[in-house]
Amino acid sequence: MSLSALQVPVARDEEKSSLVVDILTQRFGERCSRSQAVREQHGHTTTWLPNQAPDAVVFVESTEETAEVVRICAEHKVPVIPFGTGSSLEGHLNAPGGGISLDLSRMDAILQVNADDLDCRVQAGVTRKQLNSYLRDTGLFFPIDPGADASLGGMVATRASGTNAVRYGTMKDAVLGLTVVTPSGEIIHTGGRARKSAAGYDLTRLYVGSEGTLGVITELTVRLYGQPEAISGGVCPFPDIDSACQAVIATIQCGIPVARIEFLDTLQVKACNTYSKLELDEQPTLFLEFHGSDAGVREQAELFGAIAEDLGGGDFKWATQAEERTKLWSARHDAYWASFVLRPGAKGVATDVCVPISRLAECVTETSKDLEDAGLLAPIVGHVGDGNFHVLVLVDEDNPEEIAKTEAFVERLNWRAIELEGTCTGEHGVGQGKMKYLEREHGGGLDVMRSIKQALDPDNIMNPGKIVTMS
Length: 471
Fold this sequence. Notes:
Elements: H1 14-28, E1 32-33, H2 36-43, E2 56-59, H3 63-76, E3 80-83, E4 100-103, E5 110-114, E6 119-123, H4 128-135, E7 140-141, H5 152-157, H6 165-168, H7 171-174, E8 175-181, E9 187-191, H8 203-207, E10 216-223, E11 225-226, E12 230-237, H9 241-253, E13 258-264, H10 266-276, E14 285-292, H11 294-310, E15 317-319, H12 322-333, H13 335-338, E16 347-354, H14 360-374, E17 380-383, E18 388-395, H15 400-419, H16 438-442, H17 445-456
């Protein structure tokens, strides 16, 4: 299997695409770019799938402009690929059938903050860091933190989660309502600001995780949370992967309301030490953070400390000062880039899976052994509080043998997770890279997904070649 075999072919009509690009250029002027560099940037993917550039990129500035672009594309049956910040990992942004990349990054207005109701309404191009900076003086924050400074619209589309998910949930829990441009160019609104509703189908959840295949998300209303009175965090090394994972399982089963609990294997700790100038013991390690009152945080830390001690955990290095915590979590968020110090010049093949928390130790241990047996260099990190972990295989892309080994490993990892009653992706999403695993995971449910796609997007113009095939 070659890398290109992971991508599903999509019919391409050069004549129609050229006509649509001409129409959009006349309408949007310089905001419709045909530049090769800009097009390749918008087909860019931070994983191993080859770049498939769109025919043009349109920079929209409102929901109405978005609808106008979609209507033009729909009339001529030309693909539309929504683009936020470009941080997705499974080929979501590629344009296998050409078409128009719809860049929403200029739609970055924070429209309304309802502090009393703990919610806000924003345009899709607002990033999570931008929102939290805006909220700083309100005493509120938005907790979903996938690491990258992704756009909130993109985070909805890929059902993002991240380091805080174990306590605050994922984007499906955070979103109250959406404004969506449908494949025909109609503007619809789903959900609302009420905390619950029994009024009809839950269209909001239908679009969360749809990866741009059912419509373009242009605005969203999200839940906010109060800043905790006290925050405490730190790191704890363990003698092996199994004991670290068992500590996570015990922590969750004991009901300790940990805000973050992240796993780094020995390779990843070594990389972070070098890249982020840390001095951690190079062993399997947990990064933790507790939110609550002063007394509550202290109690949580003590309870976890007892669990860790029983499982052979080493000395805690607690960070109660904001500067210390920021340094630790910056290192965790930089883990992807830090990994490349282990093998300069290598290509990173990123993948993730998620399993029931009780199967976590088994899955991570088997994965680590699999990597060792295959002779692959690949650090493992994870949001292990909810059973989700990531592997970044460092590959010489000019070495066919390594590529073959890596592809075989990724396949085994995904099958392993599914067999353990987990999923082929906890947060990266499907895009192009994970499509082949959906039939085994969902069975007949995949046909239902295909029926929904067919009903809402009969001409298959919305991000075609992703999640499901239409043949």
